[in-house]
Amino acid sequence: MCETCTKLHLLVWLRRQRWLSVLKQKIKGSSFAYSSWNRTSFCEGTRSEVPDSSVLRKQKYLLQEVRRRTEGQMERTMSSVAAYYNGKAVLITGATGFMGKVLMEKLLRSSPDVKTVYILVRPKAGQSMQERVASMLQCKVFDRVREDYPNFQEKIKPINAELIQPNLAISPEDSEELLSQVNVVFHCAATIRFDEPLKRALQLNVLGTQQLIELARQMQKLEAFIHISTAYANCNQKHIDEIIYPPPVEPKKLFGLVEWMDESIIEDITPKLIGEWPNTYAYTKALTEYLLQQEKANLNIAIIRPSIVGASWHEPFPGWIDNFNGTSGIMIAAGKGILRTMIANNDAVADLIPVDVVINLTLVAGWYTAVHRPKNMMVYNCTTGGINPFSWGEMEYHVLSTFKRNPLEQVYRTPCAQLTSNYLINWYWIAVSHKAPAMIYDLYLRLTGRKPRMMKILDRLHKNLMLLEYFTTQSWEWSSDNMNMLMGQLSPEDKKLYNFDIRQLHWSEYIENYCLGAKKYLLNEDMSGIPAAKQHLRK
To answer: Per the database record, which ranges form the Thioester reductase (TE) domain (predicted)?
Structure first.
């Protein structure tokens, strides 16, 4: 064994013993002797001969588990990014949301020696902060880190906060701790509703960010502030560079304008205020980016612009999704046989980005911002269309074919949908294939003493489809120079541990995992029920 490999072996071996003791309990009572497994040579990959006994399966599981965890530990040991976060105190906003949970899970799993992960949480829907956090930590997204590091939750410290309240409504004691401890801030909190009233969107997305920046300025050890925006913040441009575009109005002036106005007046003038932007979400995200540039001062700030965030590609496991927003709801509606037509351009780019790609880029950007301290505020367009394009027509094909092979339970009709850019044709099929069958089905439910529901489902579906039309009928071009530069800064170990190279993404495989993930994690349907679902589909 070479000297380098010996050193690596020793580094990993010390940490591996802890896992071996845990795994030994799992196969307790087995005749397999640990002594029969010789040390693995990192140079030659040699291993003792597998015993010919009834415990072969348990031995195989043990070896696979040790190999997986050993390789993961080696990557973390040699990773500059993972090493950076060890010993650091990190603040995350929006931690209870989809991206926030994946970010927190990846941070705790890849940098298990992170000092503290502070999360800003507010009471919601009758739940206290503690109840929300306890419920969140039971989520399946944490199963992998829970297995590797059973006490991971000890690193998490929730802070009662409200973004739209003065000083974020943080108590003096908590504020003092944050100001003296936090090294990195990840700002993921935002309202992502496309139809959010303008005043509310301004309060949450723009004013909330401004208040967080004011808090960050006072943090004594702050090294990086990473803001999650959207690739569609400047969708009024057809080609979008990794720069900040000035909005048509100063954010602070707009605050003053809407502060005294009645809600009904604001609603009436919203179309004129947002102008070329399709909704208040994209508009307020553009304002927030400009505000960050204005308020930057001496802070090290970076902005991440993901496109349409979808299910996970690899981490924490393929197909993880926890919400019906955007494409997820459309996929399920198509799989259930409810959706038969929608407005979309078959050839337009469906710029879908897996959530783990966004999170890996975000963590790497945090490391780069803190360590290299760029002179200018860096913006990273996190998109797929310019590098690995995928059209809405291709998505339609792969979604329908996946759900025909792996049908959902209790489907309404056989999955079959078409995309069209012709509004007249779309209206025709809505009447024939959506509303007419729905009214007949609701009548059947009434006659059998059940509550009608299909028309209500269709009304919600049509409303969501109308909000998405702007994005399904056209394409954009995003430059990705900064994202490519960031990838070039990584070691081979970091590229593997924090993979955001979407050139490696195979769309057919990803969409299949996405659909199966929606079936498993959103609808709570077990894969063992597929034969029965196929039989139901044939009826």
So the answer is: 92-361
Whole-number Å distance between alpha carbons of 188 and 92:
7
In three-state secondary structure terms, 537 is helix
Question: 61, 63, 28, 70: which is closest to 49 by C-alpha?
Answer: 63
Per the domain annotation, does 152 fall within a domain?
yes
Between CA 206 and CA 246 the distance in angstroms is 15
In a domain, 115, yes or no: yes
Phi first, then psi: give them for residue 419, nearest 5 degrees: -100, 140
CB contact at 8 A, 362 and 92:
no
Residue 127 falls inside a structural domain: yes
Q: Is 210 exposed, middle or buried (0-12, 13-18, 19+ CB in 10 A)?
A: middle
- Number of domains into which the chain is organized: 1
Token pair of 150, please? 């059973």
E strand or H helix at 14: helix 3-26
Of 56, 69, 65, nearest in space to 24 by CA: 65
The torsion defined by the Cα of 28, 32, 33 and 34, in degrees rounded to 10, comes to -80
Please list the residues that pair with 105 across neighbouring strands: none
The 10s digit of each residue's pLDDT in 300-347 is 999 999 999 999 999 999 999 999 988 999 999 999 999 999 999 999
Going by C-beta distance under 8 Å and a sequence separation of 6 or more, which residues neighbour residue 431? none
- Please check whether residue 379 is in contact with residue 242, taking contact to mean a CB–CB distance below 8 angstroms: yes
Rounded CA separation 286/135 (Å)? 33
Residue indicated by tokens 């996190």: 382
Sort strands 224-228 and 239-240 into parallel, antiparallel or unpaired.
unpaired
Q: Tokens in use for 204?
A: 């949450």
What is the phi/psi pair of residue 148, to 5°?
-75, -40
Residue 365's alpha-carbon distances to 13, 98, 218, 378, in angstroms, are 31, 19, 22, 9
What integer is the mean pLDDT of 358-375? 96
Q: 152: which DSSP letter?
A: G
Give the CATH number of the domain where residue 282 resides. Answer: 3.40.50.720
E strands in 73-232: 89-93, 116-121, 156-160, 184-187, 224-228
279's tokens: 């909704």
Amino acid 303: pLDDT: 98
d(CA 350, CA 387): 12
* Range(s) of the domain holding residue 261: 80-321+350-382
pLDDT digits (tens, 9 = 90+) for 3-14: 444 444 444 444
Of 262, 290, 253, the residue nearest 199 (C-alpha): 262
Structural domain includes residue 206: yes
Whole-prediction pTM: 0.84
Distances (CA, A) of 132 to 22, 284, 325: 30, 27, 21
Chain centroid to CA 23? 31
Residues sharing a CB contact under 8 Å with residue 209, sequence separation 6 or more, in sequence order: 187, 227, 288, 291, 292
